[in-house]
Structure formats: structure tokens, C-alpha cells
């Protein structure tokens, strides 16, 4: 496992994050434990800001809270003057419960329920990102009922799909999200919205994928969006935002080769600048809404090693006290991680071993064939880069209580989500 952020190995050979030794944290808070390196989160946010400030373009930096949402994370985002992208009533509730200002929140979702739309409207959030025609009707009905108006942004599918190292420019119209650009749906949606006096169209949105390594997909998509922006602007003088989505990749393993975040963001801005120059428009205000690239690398999960199993001539397994319940990403899409024995960081990793979770499910794996320092029962296993889409996807499968989450910064640890108890697991049962 590579050390990132404030991660160090202390004199006892123990992994230390944010100035806190993880064996102490494990003793205090138990395992599995998700540790967030707050300084690293702040650094990633600053990298985005530096890129925008370099070009001196107006922008809003939003945190895609679905990557990891809890009150403390919302407060941290507010502390850093970010905007917040929520995709459900639950995420909106979390943000408001953390006193995140509604004026810097907007809502996404491909099937926002009427309740969620009502909640968004009555909370006074900045805008709603409309995803489909049904939603336009549903929102207008609600606005009629409350005799009020709402700012909206249209989510457009520009036909560019940019997952990981590749991107595909056509044939990816087939998405459950947004108004399709090629078939003219996006233009049609603009026309429908402009005829609705209760809706103020303030921007256009795209999101072309996640864990993206190359800027090129963004460039192609930005060109298509700039053309739509230019057509739309003719009849709409309230149009002022271009939301480029999230999706920038992070380094999960040493096989992931990426430019520094600030450079990657500069690449996106440059692409947008060029695209709008091409259509003869001033650059609109840009929104980016990263999730993973803000929190993924800052998160480390600490597990306690329990059982071992050796299948002769096949594979060695160790099992840890968590699994797909706190990290379903391998089971879901084959995600690859790196790990170390956190209490013996100086020992040579000499054993190839696969790390299994404790759930009754063969797919419940955390790592296949990792190189580790002879793991023994009782050791602490650190899995790096678990800050995004881990806790937020956690479940109570097998009625496992979900882990605790701590924020560490400058030698201090703060429990931000307590570990669930068995009683919590039964708390909804009637
Ligand atoms: C998931 C998502 C994001 C965040 O994506 P990351 O890959 O975590 O940066 C941003 N915008 C939309 C619309 C999303 O669905």
C-alpha cells in the first residue's frame, strides 16, 4: 500500500494518519474503522480551487455528497465554502441537519419523488437538476400548488462515456440519466422549460462517467454542450451555468497513472474555454461536482485479521471483521485496492494472500492476491483509498453493525459516525 496524504509509518512501525497511530485508534474505536485524513480532503479541495483561480474563471465547486455523506462531512464542505450536490431527500436532510446553507445546495436524481421535490422546493435550495420530462411536469405541479417558482438546470446526456482509461463518443446514448442530445430531446426539453413561467432555466449539466483518467472525453462532451448552450442562450438570458459534472479519477493502486489533480482540473477548464470560444460565447460560470476525487484517497479502512485458510496449491485466504457490508465495491464492480499490515508496516510483504469478508456470500471479498507481511490473527489490516462509495454504500447484510468513522487531523481524532450496536440493527423492527 502506498502512503498518501499525512500517512506515515511511526517509530514502532505502525501506520499513522493525521498524526494518530492506527493501533491506538483501533483500540479506542474498535474495528472495522474508517479513518479520514481531513488535511488531505482540504488539500484536494484546494487543488480544485487553484486550478480555477489560475484561469480566473467564475466557478462553483460542489461536493457530490453521495460519495460520502454524513453531518461532519457536510460541515467540512461548508467550512471549505463548497456547494453541495445531493441526490435524495436523505442527503438533503443530512446537509440541512448539518446547517449547510440551502442556497448552496442543488439536487440531482433520475427519479426524484414528489416528496423529494416538495422537500427541495420548501427548503429553498439553489436549484434542481431536472433529469426527464416527467420530472418537469411533476415539479411544475408542485410549484403551482405552492404558488412559487424554482431555478432549474437541465441534465443532458452528450453521448460521451468516459469510464476509466477509455472514452466512447457515440453509442452511449443508452443511459438512464438525462435528456439525450443526439435525438434532439435536450433541445426539446429546453423549449418545454422555457414555456413554463414557474421554471427559470439557469444552466446545463453533464456528467460523463466516474474514475476518469483522460481529459479528452470532457473536451468532446464540452464542445457538444457549448453548441447546445449557444442555441439555448438565444432564447434564454437567464442561462449562466455550465455544470461539467464530476468523475475525475484517483489512484487506487500503483497501476493507476494520473496527472496531479490540479493539472487534471486545469485540463477540464481549458477544454471548456476552447469549446465556448469555438461557438463565440464567453465562458459561462462553471460548476464541477467531484465526489471520489475529494474523499476517496483520504479514507482508510482498518480491519482486524481473524481466521486464515489455506487451500493447498490454490490460494491463501485471510478473513477480516468487515467485508462487503462496509466495502461492496469489489463485489459490485471488481474494484482493486491495496493493503498493508498496519501494525507491522516495516515487515517485508512476502505472502500473497486474498482478503475475504465475514459475510455469508462467496463474492464477499476485499482483495484478491495481495502481497502482505505474513498476516496473523489479531493483526490490523489497512485498506487504502476507501473514502468514496464505501461507507455510503454500506449495508447491514447478515445484520452486521456498520463501522465507526473518525476524522483525524493534526494529531487529533474525532468520532463522526459512531459504530452501530446490535440494538441499532433492530431499531426499526416492530
Ligand atoms: C456520481 C456523480 C458525481 C460524482 O462523481 P465522482 O466520480 O465521485 O466524482 C457527480 N455528478 C453526478 C451527476 C453524479 O451522478
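^ C-alpha cells above, recovered residues below v
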Amino acid at each position: 500500500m502506498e502512503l498518501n496524504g499525512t500517512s506515515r509509518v511511526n517509530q514502532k512501525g505502525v501506520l499513522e494518519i493525521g498524526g494518530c497511530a492506527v493501533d491506538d485508534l483501533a483500540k479506542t474505536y474498535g474495528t472495522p474503522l474508517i479513518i479520514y485524513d481531513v488535511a488531505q480532503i482540504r488539500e484536494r479541495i484546494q487543488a480544485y480551487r487553484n486550478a480555477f483561480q489560475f484561469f480566473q474563471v467564475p466557478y462553483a465547486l460542489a461536493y457530490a455528497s453521495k460519495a460520502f455523506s454524513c453531518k461532519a462531512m457536510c460541515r467540512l464542505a461548508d467550512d471549505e465554502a463548497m456547494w453541495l450536490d445531493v441526490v435524495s431527500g436523505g442527503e438533503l436532510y443530512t446537509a440541512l441537519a448539518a446547517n449547510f446553507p440551502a442556497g448552496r445546495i442543488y439536487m440531482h436524481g433520475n427519479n426524484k419523488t414528489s416528496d423529494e421535490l416538495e422537500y427541495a422546493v420548501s427548503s429553498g435550495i439553489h436549484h434542481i437538476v431536472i433529469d426527464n420530462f416527467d420530472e418537469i411536469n411533476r415539479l411544475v405541479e408542485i410549484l403551482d400548488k405552492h404558488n412559487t417558482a424554482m431555478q432549474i438546470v437541465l441534465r443532458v446526456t452528450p453521448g460521451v462515456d468516459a469510464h476509466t482509461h477509455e472514452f466512447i463518443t457515440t453509442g452511449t446514448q443508452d443511459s438512464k440519466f438525462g435528456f439525450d442530445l443526439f435525438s434532439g430531446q435536450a433541445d426539446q426539453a429546453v423549449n418545454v422549460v422555457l414555456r413554463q413561467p414557474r421554471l427559470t432555466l439557469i444552466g446545463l449539466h453533464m456528467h460523463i462517467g466516474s474514475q476518469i483518467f483522460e481529459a479528452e472525453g470532457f473536451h468532446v462532451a464540452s464542445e457538444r454542450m457549448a453548441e447546445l448552450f449557444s442555441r439555448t442562450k438565444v432564447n434564454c438570458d437567464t442561462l449562466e451555468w455550465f455544470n461539467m459534472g464530476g468523475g475525475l479519477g484517483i489512484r487506487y493502486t500503483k497501476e493507476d497513472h494520473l496527472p496531479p489533480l490540479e493539472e487534471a482540473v486545469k485540463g477540464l477548464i481549458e477544454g471548456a474555454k476552447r469549446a465556448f470560444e469555438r461557438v463565440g460565447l464567453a465562458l459561462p460560470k462553471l460548476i464541477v461536482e467531484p465526489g471520489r476525487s475529494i474523499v476517496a484517497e483520504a479514507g482508510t479502512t482498518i480491519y482486524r485479521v481473524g481466521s486464515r485458510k489455506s487451500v493447498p496449491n490454490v490460494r491463501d485466504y485471510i478473513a477480516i471483521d468487515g467485508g462487503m457490508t462496509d466495502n461492496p465495491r469489489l463485489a459490485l464492480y471488481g474494484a482493486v485496492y491495496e493493503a498493508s499490515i498496519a501494525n507491522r508496516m516495516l515487515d517485508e510483504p512476502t505472502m500473497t494472500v486474498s482478503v475475504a469478508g465475514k459475510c455469508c456470500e462467496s463474492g464477499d471479498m476485499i482483495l484478491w492476491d495481495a502481497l502482505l507481511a505474513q498476516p496473523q490473527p489479531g493483526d490490523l489490516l489497512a485498506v487504502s483509498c476507501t473514502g468514496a462509495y464505501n461507507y455510503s454504500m454500506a449495508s447491514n447484510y447478515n445484520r452486521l453493525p456498520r463501522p465507526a468513522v473518525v476524522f483525524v487531523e493534526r494529531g487529533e481524532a474525532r468520532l463522526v459516525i459512531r459504530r452501530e450496536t446490535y440494538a441499532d440493527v433492530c431499531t426499526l423492527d416492530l
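Residues 38-55 form the longest helix (18 residues).
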